[in-house]
Amino acid sequence: MTGPAIILVRPQLAENMGTAARAMLNCGLTDLRIVAPRANPLDERAIAAASGADTLLLGAKVVETTAEAVADLNRVWCTTGRDRYMVKPVDTPRQAASAMRAAEAQGQRCGILFGPERTGLENDDVAIADTVLTVPLNPDYCSLNLAQAVLLVAYEWFQTDAATELPAMTKGAEGPASKEKLLTFFNHLERELDDCGFLRIPDKRPTMVRNLRNMFQRANLTGQEIQTLHGVVHELVTYRHRKGEGK
């Protein structure tokens, strides 16, 4: 394992991508993913700011959506200092580092989302994550730039030599499903809920969708469990159609 993926979501400045890469490599992290960057990650300013860590920029996976960036991961943390009014576990960087080590020891892949410099992550990005990662700092001033946030979280991971024993449920031989499988199920469910009219109020739809996604993510579902849920949704839809035809 090479440690958690560092995922920069819609970063605005080339220099910040460079300094984030530098912070990663200081702590032995090499899996850099960039979602819809506003600037070119290979801009000369990014390369200069990386100060020798430009190999991470050259090898970075650049994608258009957060969903693409986390598709192959099993556990995702999101960094935010604001209350998003979603029911999610909250870790400090040290707690998250221990949890990541434990997850990696079980063969799971982890990642951490970092939002744009000016606004931070959007609620839909936060909804994709399993756990919120918040840095306990001075409550009167807790502003970090992108590279500082990456360095702080990466350093805690680097300093955690061994996995901490964490509460776990027996899941048999199969671990948590990948985000790709989970997001595919979400799309299936939401498509059918749109069709039946459950999500019919436009103003309330985004919040309802995020609430549903958060509920299922807290369940830490396996791939087999997701397949079962696909089957449940399919049978409910089939039954509704049969019932409608019988009228």
Secondary structure blueprint with pairings:
Blueprint: E1 5-9, H1 14-26, E2 32-35, H2 44-50, H3 54-58, E3 61-63, H4 66-70, E4 75-79, E5 90-91, H5 93-105, E6 110-114, H6 123-128, E7 131-133, H7 146-159, H8 179-196, H9 205-218, H10 223-245
Parallel strand pairs: 1-2, 1-6, 2-3, 4-6, 4-7, 5-7
Subcellular location: Cytoplasm
Subunit structure: Homodimer.
Domain tRNA/rRNA methyltransferase SpoU type: 5-155
Descriptive overview:
The protein is of the alpha/beta class and 247 residues long. It folds into two domains: 5-159, 3-Layer(aba) Sandwich (Alpha/beta knot), CATH 3.40.1280; 179-245. Helices cover 48% and strands 11% of the residues. It has ten helices and seven strands. It has a seven-stranded parallel sheet with strand order 3-2-1-6-4-7-5. Strand 1 (5-9), helix 1 (14-26) and strand 2 form a beta-alpha-beta unit. The longest helix has 23 residues, at 223-245. The radius of gyration is 20 Å and the shape is elongated. It starts with a strand and ends with a helix.
Supply database-style keywords:
alpha/beta, Alpha/beta knot, 2 domains, 7-stranded parallel beta sheet, 10 helices, 7 strands, RNA binding, cytoplasm, RNA_MeTrfase_TrmJ/LasT, Alpha/beta_knot_MTases
User: What is the typical, i.e. mean, pLDDT?
Assistant: 89
In order across it, which strands form the biggest sheet? 3-2-1-6-4-7-5
What is the element string, with H for helices and E for strands? EHEHHEHEEHEHEHHHH
Helix content: 40-55%
Shape verdict: elongated
Protein structure class? alpha/beta
Radius of gyration: 20 Å
Unreliable spans are 162-166
CATH topology of the largest domain: Alpha/beta knot
What is the CATH-assigned architecture of the largest domain? Answer: 3-Layer(aba) Sandwich
Q: What is the C-level CATH assignment of the largest domain?
A: Alpha Beta
- Please give the oligomerization state of what you see: single chain
Q: What's the domain count?
A: 2
User: What percent of residues are in strands?
Assistant: 5-15%
Annotation, overall tally of beta strands: 7
- According to CATH, the homologous superfamily of the largest domain is SPOUT methyltransferase, trefoil knot domain
How many angstroms separate the termini? 57 Å
Sheet with the most strands?
7 strands, parallel
Q: Number of helical runs?
A: 10
Subcellular location: Cytoplasm
Enzyme class: transferase
Main location: cytoplasm
Domain tRNA/rRNA methyltransferase SpoU type: 5-155
